[in-house]
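Give me structure tokens for this 191-residue protein.
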Amino acid sequence: MEERVVLAALQEYGRTGWSGFTMDAVARRAGVGKSTLYLRWPSKEALIRHAIEQHSKPLTLTDSGSLREDITALATNLMRYFLDPAGWASVRITMDEAAEHTGLDDVHGYLVTMHSEAASALFQRAIEGGELSADAPIPTLTEALYGTVLMHILTLTTPERAAAAEHIEQDVAPIVELLLATVAAHATDTV
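Here you go.
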């Protein structure tokens, strides 16, 4: 039952954002009584916080030894994440927290840290491996990767998002090329 409630919370938050997110709506979507929710989570903040913690695990990547392959893997994982209910809810949380104080600043911080650490580690390995110069602007490269993937997802209609999972590699390829062109400006002579 908990997994059903957690998924319902993520889907509901992804659909409505903070202003429309209610325990009533989650209970209806999950097919449980509202009192059942309140026995486990005292507030909607506690429920969405728990749901995000359960489903938004850090993006772990193996070091392939190739910056291109590592960026492709991260962009692919990121796109899959944003297409998932937890990822879509995390996008909404990030936007809601930026626009107004929702009380989810700790969740927002967790999401930002989780994602920036994955990309930073990737670019740091590229520096250590000689594929990227030591003065490469890692925060800017991270924002370029995440921003491009996110904008791609945001421009898709709901039916297109549903179908996008079947052609992620095709959608990721031009994003990777764009980022590699940016990275080339900061490449060492060995790239």
